[in-house]
Amino acid sequence: MKIPFARPYLTGNEQKYINDILANIQNGAQISGDGPYGKKCEQLMEEKFVARKVLLTTSCTSALEMATRLINIQPGDEVIMPSFTFVSTANPVVIARGRPVFVDIDPDTLNIDPTKIEEAITPRTKAIYSVHYAGVSCAMDEIMSIAKRHGLWVVEDAAQGVGARYKERHLGTIGDFGCYSFHETKNITCGEGGALVINRDDQELIERAEIIREKGTDRSKFHRGQVDKYTWVDVGSSYVQSDILAAFLYAQLEAMDEMNQRRMEIWNDYYTQLKPFEESGMIRLPVIPDYAEHNAHIFYILFRDLIVRDIIMDRLKKDKIHAVFHYMPLHSSPQGKKERGDQTSIPITDEISRRILRFPIYSGMNSKEINYVISIFEKIVTNFL
Q1: Which residue from 100, 147, 169, 295 puts its CA 20 to 30 A from 341's CA?
Q2: Which residues pair with 180 in a beta bridge?
Q3: What's the count of helices (H) and strands (E) in the chain, helices before strands?
Q4: What's phi and psi for 358, nearest 5 deg?
Q5: How deeply is 201 buried, as exposed, middle or buried, from its count of CB atoms within 10 A (0-12, 13-18, 19+)?
Q6: What is the DSSP letter of 230?
Q7: Of 175, 197, 174, which Cα lies nearest the Cα of 53?
Q8: What single string gives the DSSP state of each residue in 352-366?
Q9: Dihedrals φ, ψ of 70, to 5°?
Q10: Tens place of pLDDT for every residue, the chain, 385 residues?
């Protein structure tokens, strides 16, 4: 049996909605961005997530770039973020010639540690970028309180958090901005895609976001009949998602609860079957705080050290089970070292990155596949440890 790390799940309506567009091209159906299906996706998320404004983008990276431009990061401005994250969290800050300030994570949740944020604040600090690892919420009350005290923006990198909640509030709707990913590996996908969530009740901010997304033009106003022509009014880029992709995404969003529930069943199955290994001290399982309602985006385990992790990972791959690790911490990467300067050590991030292993999980995963993963893991660990 071959078990991939991830596999996109089809709801059954993706082809139907794409065909709806293709069948009506001769009648003027729109396949470029900001079309009917894009608007349906945005409206669905605004209503379901209770979000002020949602704008589809080409990726979560694009959404983060837009958020960084909207908060006007200038050369020398500092943005506090975890080092345990994907490079897209830091790149927009560097592109704006700001400075990412990496801080350590909480050893339980693997999210940014609020106690490390305040001590990293300087007069140049402009924002906090919180990353909801594995769809498990950061401690947002603490983060928002720190931001309010110091007058900082908060951007939620909720790439992994679509459909997850913090104290009944959807991730991405708590900070000033939220950023979602609909990449192929995510719970909800359209291959490549994302969304920017704007949570401030500020119409000028929303209009500026539309302009940035439309290559710096006021084209959205033109389409609404608010101006008789559109022109270049700000610096922007091509961040609007194709309506073909939005049609695919709409089918996914309609079935989001069902898909996340199925992933949760798989996650719980893993957790239950692997609990004895944790009780024996061989591994550590994920910790979910009471305030978090996660979306089962990732199931991971922690080994005691790098050597054990790598041996187990390699042996799983020999049995065609694609288990992977991440991240290479940003602060220890070649570019991260340039950006980091003389920052102090980030020990928990370094330790976790050496011990973590992610198991395959996807909505279409069946019991036979789950049991195969568990049985092979049990055989390897029993013989090795």
Answers
A1: 147
A2: 195
A3: 14, 12
A4: -100, 130
A5: exposed
A6: -
A7: 197
A8: HHHHEEEEP--TT--
A9: -65, -30
A10: 999 999 999 999 999 999 999 998 888 878 988 899 999 999 999 999 999 999 999 999 999 999 999 999 999 999 999 999 999 999 999 999 999 999 999 999 999 999 999 999 999 999 999 999 999 999 999 999 999 999 999 999 999 999 999 999 999 999 999 999 999 999 999 999 999 999 999 999 999 999 999 999 988 888 788 888 889 999 999 999 999 999 999 999 999 999 999 999 999 999 999 999 999 999 999 999 999 999 999 999 999 999 999 999 999 999 999 999 988 999 999 998 888 766 667 999 999 999 999 999 999 999 999 999 999 999 999 887 6
The enclosing H or E element of 293 equals: strand 292-293
In order of their start, the domains of the chain are 14-254 (3.40.640.10), 256-384 (3.90.1150.10)
- DSSP annotation of 71: T
* Beta strands across the sheet bearing 153-157: 53-57, 194-198, 177-181, 153-157, 125-131, 78-82, 99-103
d(CA 106, CA 123) in angstroms, rounded, equals 25
Amino acid 258 reads E
Handedness of CA 33, 36, 42, 44 (dihedral sign): negative
Rounded to two decimals, the pTM is 0.95
Phi/psi zone of residue 183: left (φ > 0), alpha (ψ -120 to 50 degrees), beta?
beta
> What is the SS3 assignment for 163?
coil
φ, ψ of residue 346 in degrees (nearest 5): -125, 75
DSSP state of 165: E
CA distance 56 to 239: 8
Q: Rounding to the nearest 10 degrees, give the CA dihedral for residues 46, 159, 157, 88.
A: -130
The total of other beta-carbon atoms located within 10 Å of residue 35's CB is 20
Backbone phi, then psi, for 67, in 5-degree steps?
A: -60, -40
Helix (H, G, I), strand (E, B) or coil at 225: coil
Q: How far is CA 202 from CA 50, 207, 208, in A?
A: 16, 9, 10
